[in-house]
Amino acid sequence: KAGVTQTPRYLIKTRGQQVTLSCSPISGHRSVSWYQQTPGQGLQFLFEYFSETQRNKGNFPGRFSGRQFSNSRSEMNVSTLELGDSALYLCASSLADRPNYGYTFGSGTRLTVV
Amino acid sequence: QQQVKQSPQSLIVQKGGISIINCAYENTAFDYFPWYQQFPGKGPALLIAIRPDVSEKKEGRFTISFNKSAKQFSLHIMDSQPGDSATYFCAASGADNFNKFYFGSGTKLNVKP
Question: Which of A59, A74, B51, B53 has its CA 20 to 30 A from that of B73?
Fold first, then answer.
């Protein structure tokens, strides 16, 4: 069974640019959540998507956005990149109708903003 | 406000010893408490989880102890092995937003051979 796939694995962007990250969930998983991981702030929840709708949202500025497609694949976008956006971005997928069941993380996308 | 507080930040244990990591939470609406293990270059992987209706859960060498009145829970790794060297995170979520996890700051465990 394939796991959660995140692409690309590594990205280098310049301050002010925008970036789009992709997450393909485990087959059958309809919920996709995104997290930002940094040494200083740890793992912080960005948002969750279920059935193409944002169901939960963390405390991040509007520069961070996401969407989910009908096949449950999700993308997150960060506009007007800042140096502080350098982080490992993780997505996790799960069975939306079974709380906490099968919550699985991908290996992440390492974003470096220069 | 940090919802889940984790200690220690780092831990060195001899092979065969017991590793203990502690977490405390504030929100009494939390009803699911997992522990994750993360190796460099990988995403966190679920290790073991507990709900507040039990005080202890054991899976192999890994045990969660849960104290609902103190709002604390801990991970015990028995017979620690060098392969257990990783970063461990506790987390919590509530019934209303069960896929929104609040994570502790992480504990870097180093098991010496």
Answer: A59
Instruction: For CA atoms B80, B84, B90, B94, give the dihedral sign.
Output: negative
Instruction: State how far the Cα of A50 lies from the Cα of A68, in Å rounded to an integer.
Output: 7
- Euclidean distance between the first and the last CA atom of chain B, given in angstroms as a whole number: 38
User: What would the pLDDT profile of A34-79 be if each residue is shown by its tens digit?
Assistant: 999 999 899 999 999 999 999 989 999 999 999 999 999 999 999 9
Contact A100 B49 (CB under 8 A): yes
Q: Do A42 and B101 touch (CB under 8 A)?
A: no
Q: Do B44 and A58 touch (CB under 8 A)?
A: no
Asked if residue A102 lies in contact with residue A14, where contact means CB atoms within 8 angstroms, the answer is no
Give the span between the Cα atoms of B62 and A50, in whole angstroms. 32
Q: Considering only CA atoms, which of A91, A80, A74, A84 is closest in space to residue A111?
A: A84
- Which residues of B are less than 8 Å from A104 in CB distance? 46
pLDDT interval class at B96 (50, 70, 90):
confident
Interface subset of A 76-105, CB within 8 angstroms of B: 90, 92, 94, 96, 99-100, 103-105
**Residue A78: Cβ-neighbour burial (10 angstroms; 0-12, 13-18, 19+):** buried
Can you tell me the distance from the alpha carbon of A39 to that of B103, in angstroms, rounded to the nearest whole number?
Answer: 13
